[in-house]
Structure formats: C-alpha cells, structure tokens
Design brief:
Layout (H helix, E strand, L loop, with lengths): L10 E6 L5 H12 L2 E4 L24 H11 L6 H5 L3 H4 L9 H21 L8 E5 L6 H7 L2 E7 L2 H11 L6 H9 L2 H15 L5 H19 L6 E4 H6 L1 H11 L8 H4 L10 H5 L2 H4 L1 H5 L2 H13 L18
Parallel strand pairs: 1-3, 1-4, 2-3, 4-5
Length: about 325
C-alpha cells in the first residue's frame, strides 16, 4: 500500500548518479518554489538505515525499516547535519587526533567556513513545509519507491564522460571507486537481480576509469530501461543546460511544481559545484570542459567499457546524448 505525505502532497524526488548536476537542479527548483531541500538522506553518515545505501530493491521487496525511515524523511520529520547543511558531522566537531597538525587545522577551518556558508544559504529554506528530496544512492530502488509512496520522480542522466572525469578529478573518500563498487559486490539482491549482467565485470581487476564507467552503467542502465514501463521521467543534464526554456518547464510539471526557475537563477553554481564552476558553465555546449580535461588513457578505457556494457546513447567523442537510443 502506498503511503502519502502529510498534507496530501506527492513525494517529490530527484535521482541521479553523483556529479550529475542533481544538487544544482534541486536547489534551483527549491528556490523557485519555496521548498525545503533534503540532501541525500541515504548517505550512511546520517541515515538510520545505512544498509540500504546504493541498494538494489525491486517493487516486491518488503522492508518496514526502510519504509518507516523514508516516511519520516518525506514527511519532513527527519533532520540531520548532513541532510540539512550538507556537512559530515565529524567535520563539524572533529576529534583531537584530526587537528593535530597545522595542515589539519587549516582543513578544519575550511570545513567550518563551508558549514557557515551552507547555513547562510540553507537556514531559511529549512523552515519551508513542502520538501524536495535528492538522492544519488537510490537509482536501483526506483521501482520500490514508486510502489511504496505516492511519488513524482525525475531521474537525471548526465554524460558518463562528464561524470567519470569529475569523479576522477575530485577523488578522495567520496569518489573512491573501489569502495563504491563494494556495495554491489556484497549485495545479494543485486547479485540476484543484475548479477548476471555485471558480475563478470565486478570480478575483474579494473582501472579507476573503468571502475567509474562500470558504476555509471550499473546506476543508470537499468533505471533508464525501466523508465518506459514506470511513471518516472528521465531528463538529460545536457538538455537542461542547453535548452532551458524547453526542458525546465517539463521538469517542473513532472514534479507537480508551479514555478519554473528563472534563467538568471539557473546560471548560479550549486552548493556542490567545483571551485572553477564559472569558467565551466560558460558556453557549455561548445566547450564541454570534461572532454579537454580527461586524459587520453582514461577516455579510451571508458569508451571501451561503454561499448562492452552495451551503452549506445553516449560515446566519449561526443558531449551530447544520442536521442531515442539506450
């Protein structure tokens, strides 16, 4: 039985892989419609059900624990430093062992400055009653979400080359491909549902570029193929950037929202954007910065992996998706 949120509003969700522009989209829509943005509540640092981070769930799956947690999220009853202010808790008040050197003290100062900036940006929005939730860890439970809640869902699809390049460049704990692949390697339900398709690649010794390409395929191929038989809609990041007057009204309608973001707001960087965002955003369709930044080796390895995985919508020598192709 589907659950409804308090007030009878639908559950509005934005899903996508990490580094796909989901934060920019969430913040743009939240600002235009006076919504409270709820940021990635399945991340283990704040989730009460960390075992479901990146989980594969079909619509028949029974999980009262997950359903109860997400009911609190969708009803606006869940609060955490991470989901409210986008800061990992132990970076707010670190242990003494983490600030024992001058470099660690400077890093803590940067984190504290970021937290204060996030508080300035987000504190007013946290008082809004209607919410907009963003996930980058729930692509493989889309059907389950629809089966259990009254949802309006937009799945954001971004070129794998842009996603892979960004993840390789940023690196660090958040984008460690070995750690992220371990979720799928140790998920029995993923093994039962998609193991035949991806199992042999999960057993291989892959380069970072190959691993990130495999992760992109795992997170996007199945949801994209299921979209025709489900009610969620797929939006390409590139189309939202290059054709905003056409695409943003469609996105707003799918999520049952009244206001389309103003063009002037859409050129502002998201809270998760890289520090050189301004130069990246200018004339995106012509520059496609990721194509000039990714190494030849990484590009070639990613392109071969895409072909092996059956991805035809994208290639590493074209920054735009091929319309009407999986």
């Amino acid at each position: 039985m589907k659950e409804e949120v308090m007030g009878g509003e639908p559950v509005r969700l934005i899903l996508g892989s990490g580094r796909s522009g989901t934060t920019w989209i969430q913040d743009s829509l939240a600002n235009a419609n006076d919504l409270r943005p709820v940021f990635e509540p399945l991340k283990s640092v704040s989730s009460k059900v960390p075992q479901f981070e990146y989980a594969f769930l079909d619509k028949q799956h029974q999980s009262p624990e997950l359903k109860s947690f997400l009911s609190d999220v969708f009803n606006g009853q869940f609060r955490s430093i991470w989901s409210d202010y986008r800061m990992i808790p132990d970076r707010v008040i670190p242990s003494l062992s983490k600030v024992e050197s001058w470099e660690s003290i400077k890093a803590y100062r940067r984190h504290l400055t970021q937290l204060l900036e996030n508080y300035r940006m987000l504190s007013t929005a946290l008082n809004h009653k209607s919410i907009l939730v963003k996930f980058i860890r729930a692509n493989l439970m889309l059907s389950w979400l629809q089966a259990n809640f009254d949802t309006r869902i937009a799945l954001i699809l971004r070129h794998p080359g842009a996603v892979i390049e960004s993840q390789l460049r940023l690196g660090g704990e958040s984008w460690d491909p070995v750690a992220r692949l371990s979720y799928y390697r140790h998920d029995s339900q993923f093994e039962a549902g998609l193991g035949e398709r991806y199992g042999r690649y999960l057993k291989k010794d892959l380069s970072p570029a190959q691993m990130n390409t495999l992760i992109w395929a795992i997170e996007n191929q199945y949801p994209l193929e299921q979209a025709e038989s489900e009610t969620y809609r797929v939006f390409c990041y590139e189309s939202l950037v290059n054709s905003p007057l056409e695409e943003w009204p469609k996105l707003t309608k799918v999520l049952d929202l009244k206001n389309v973001p103003q063009l002037s707001d859409l050129v502002k960087p998201s809270q998760q954007a890289s520090s050189n965002w301004e130069s990246e955003k200018k004339d995106y369709s012509k520059s496609a910065k990721w194509m000039s930044r990714i190494s030849d080796k990484d590009r070639d390895e990613a392109d071969i992996m895409l072909r092996m995985l059956g991805v035809r919508r994208y290639s590493m020598d074209d920054p735009n998706p091929k319309p009407g192709v999986f």
